[in-house]
């Protein structure tokens, strides 16, 4: 928009009398310039805008000094003004189903506003988080996020995930398939956590597009937790014993009976994690593909894999504790030992099975199997080239 030129009228003065009397001096053609109203253009307009892309504000003339984009709840989209002052772009995408107001100020202190509303998402993706807010977990517990729908834009999603720790723990995200078949991303430290570490996880996913078949995320997620005591568990299939160490010192040894070697009833081996303490549960062999071998209530159950490997009380197998591996795959022990072991155990404690007679390592997504990979192997599973992320 151009300014309007205002011309002052020419004034002529006459003197009475004779002679060479001159007229008064006129001020003519004086031009006064007015400032043009500030005009902006916003890339998103209307009341059914498609969400999932950044907001971009462009000034018609002059330079932007400040831009503020807020939603009806007072939330604000942060952004940056370009070096030439002509455009402002939000750091995050516009969220679905949201009213936005744009307020812009230029370098001449003029103001301009605009409004738009995004439509609802055709499909919404959601996240399940393995660690609840305020929890205390063991030194092997990864952050694990499972998505309801497929995630094709893995790099874009991963960019919005941030782990912050109280001691700059080095770690990396890695993408795997969960046992359920869904897309999953875990954050694993390079080494086991240090006891006492405070951890915060921010998942700034609102408005992010999952990609084909996944839909948009319609909210942010977050959690925070603390790392408890350094307590580690090792089961030897050779000696039929379970050993607990705390802060590197042996705390106790328990005679056990693990899975029967030589078939599907053998135990998984390698580095696992106590996923959850589930207490008394019903165990039915038909649910894990072992026919009608058993169907009973089992006490002091601690889950190690999604496919059904547990550590638990197994009084029916007492004759084999410390002598023979004769279970259907789980690590069993006496009621008394199971009760005290259960009371001491934290979800997130590392649980490693060593020795002969196993059926190998479980798949990465069948529990928390990432500790069976080297650090370089794990980093390579990041969608961002496996670059380590310091928290």
Description:
With 391 residues, this protein is mainly β. It folds into three domains: 40-118, Immunoglobulin-like; 124-228 and 375-390, Sandwich (Immunoglobulin-like), CATH 2.60.40.3710; 231-360, L,D-transpeptidase catalytic domain-like (Beta Barrel), CATH 2.40.440.10. 5% of the residues lie in helices and 40% in strands. It is built from three helices and 31 strands. The chain has helices at residues 154-158, 335-344, 375-379, and strands spanning 5-7, 31-33, 40-42, 46-49, 54-59, 64-71, 76-77, 79-81, 87-93, 99-106, 111-118, 124-125, 127-129, 135-137, 143-147, 161-165, 170-177, 183-189, 198-203, 216-217, 221-227, 231-236, 241-246, 249-255, 270-273, 276-284, 295-303, 310-313, 331-333, 350-354, 389-390. The strands form eight sheets. The chain has a five-stranded mixed beta sheet, with no helix packed on it. Strands 13-15-18-17-31 form a five-stranded antiparallel beta sheet, with no helix packed on it.
Task: Please supply descriptive tags for the structure shown above.
about 400 residues; mainly beta; Immunoglobulin-like; L,D-transpeptidase catalytic domain-like; 5-stranded mixed β-sheet; 3 helices; elongated
CATH class of the largest domain: Mainly Beta
The CATH architecture term of the largest domain is Beta Barrel
- The mean pLDDT is 90
Percentage of helical residues?
A: under 10%
Number of domains: 3
- What is the gyration radius calculated from CA atoms? 34 Å
> What is the terminal-to-terminal distance?
49 Å
- According to CATH, the fold-level topology of the largest domain is L,D-transpeptidase catalytic domain-like
Biggest sheet, open or closed, and with what strands and sense? 5 strands, mixed
Low-confidence stretches: 1-32
| Binned strand content | 35-45%
Shape: elongated
CATH homology superfamily name of the largest domain: L,D-transpeptidase catalytic domain-like
Question: How is the largest sheet built, in terms of strand order?
Answer: 4-11-10-6-7
Number of strands: 31
- Can you count the helices? 3
Helix-strand makeup class: mainly beta
């Amino acid at each position: 928009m151009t300014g309007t030129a205002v011309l002052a009228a020419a004034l002529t003065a006459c003197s009475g009398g004779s002679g060479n009397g001159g007229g008064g001096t006129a001020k003519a053609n004086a031009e006064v310039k007015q400032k043009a109203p500030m005009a902006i253009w916003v890339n998103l307009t209307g009341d059914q805008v498609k969400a999932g892309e950044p907001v971009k504000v462009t000034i018609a003339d002059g330079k932007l000094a400040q831009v503020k984009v807020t939603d009806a709840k007072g939330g604000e989209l942060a952004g940056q003004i370009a070096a030439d002052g002509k455009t402002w772009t939000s750091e995050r995408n516009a969220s679905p189903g949201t009213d936005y107001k744009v307020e812009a100020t230029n370098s001449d202190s003029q103001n301009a506003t605009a409004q738009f509303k995004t439509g609802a998402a055709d499909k919404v993706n959601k996240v399940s988080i393995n660690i609840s807010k305020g929890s205390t977990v063991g030194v092997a517990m990864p952050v694990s996020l499972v998505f309801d729908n497929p995630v094709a834009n893995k790099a874009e999603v991963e960019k919005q995930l941030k782990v912050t720790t109280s001691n700059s723990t080095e770690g990396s995200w890695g993408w795997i398939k969960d046992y359920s078949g869904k897309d999953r991303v875990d954050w694993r430290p390079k080494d086991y956590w240090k006891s006492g570490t405070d951890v915060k996880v921010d998942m700034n996913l609102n408005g992010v597009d999952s990609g084909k078949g996944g839909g948009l995320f319609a909210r942010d997620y977050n959690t925070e937790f603390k790392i408890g005591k350094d307590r580690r568990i090792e089961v030897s299939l050779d000696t039929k014993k379970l050993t607990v160490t705390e802060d590197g010192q042996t705390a106790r040894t328990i005679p056990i009976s693990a899975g029967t070697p030589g078939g599907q009833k053998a135990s998984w081996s390698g580095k696992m994690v106590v996923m959850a303490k589930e207490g008394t549960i019903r165990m039915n062999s038909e649910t894990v593909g072992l026919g009608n071998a058993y169907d009973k209530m089992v006490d002091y159950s601690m889950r190690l894999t999604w496919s059904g490997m547990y550590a638990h009380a197994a009084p029916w197998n007492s004759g084999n504790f410390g002598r023979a591996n004769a279970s259907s795959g789980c690590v069993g022990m006496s009621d008394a030992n199971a009760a005290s072991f259960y009371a001491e155990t934290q979800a997130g404690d590392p649980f490693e099975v060593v020795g002969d007679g196993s059926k190998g390592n479980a798949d990465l997504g069948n529990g928390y199997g990432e500790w069976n990979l080297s650090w370089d192997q794990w980093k390579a599973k990041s969608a961002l080239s496996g670059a380590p992320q310091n928290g």
